[in-house]
Amino acid sequence: MKKLITKFFVAAGFVALFTTANAQIGVRIGANLANASIGGDDTGETKMRPGFSAGLFYQIQSGSLTIQPEINFAQQGTKFNVDFLGSKLESTFTMNYIQVPILVKYGFGDMEKLNFFVEAGPYLGLGIGKAKAETCIDGGDCETEETEYGSSDEQIKNPDFGAQFGAGVNINKNISVDVRYVLGLANLVNDGDEENSWKNNAINIGVGYKF
Fold first, then answer.
1. Where are the domains of the chain?
2. Other CB atoms closer than 10 Å to residue 125's CB: what's the count?
3. What Cα–Cα distance (Å) separates residue 154 from each residue in 27, 100, 147?
4. If you classify domain 24-210 with CATH, what class do you get?
5. pLDDT, average across residues 51-63
6. Do residues 107 and 150 make contact, with C-beta atoms less than 8 angstroms apart?
7. Residue 109 pLDDT greater than 90, yes or no
8. pTM of whole model > 0.85?
């Protein structure tokens, strides 16, 4: 009987949340300062690779609480330098993803005016096209290699997954600005060697507009 009563109140709570919620669709564009956590031999020092992101979101707001699923295009990757046989190799990796985060946001202050919020949630990333690696020797001759996403040793594991969390400000009821940290949890290396790893991460700065 107690379990039945508990289920009833939980269900009633969800019904109350969604019947009083305000739903809006919006767009978000931003800069993706991508990097990677790489494990293995002779990986070199990684640096941020500037890219961009853009997508759509659906926002369900009830009071200070907001649930926001999104679908975004985001560029991941990294840059690093390696000294090899007296030469300096500079490599830039570019990886394109369709990312689907589901964020829970909590706002502080009047939600119709200037207010601050924090946000967090999981994401799933699907690699699209081919990953590209451009390597230049001593700043001169450059070569580009392409790698497919898949399950073989020579391919990049797909999909990616992880978490996003951050904070931002609603300038008014339509415009928002936020900064997120994208923490990849999936090892994208397929060769089975636990010492070899590649995990995406990024700092994402975005501007959103709700219609």
1. 24-210
2. 25
3. 36, 26, 8
4. mainly beta
5. 94
6. no
7. no
8. no
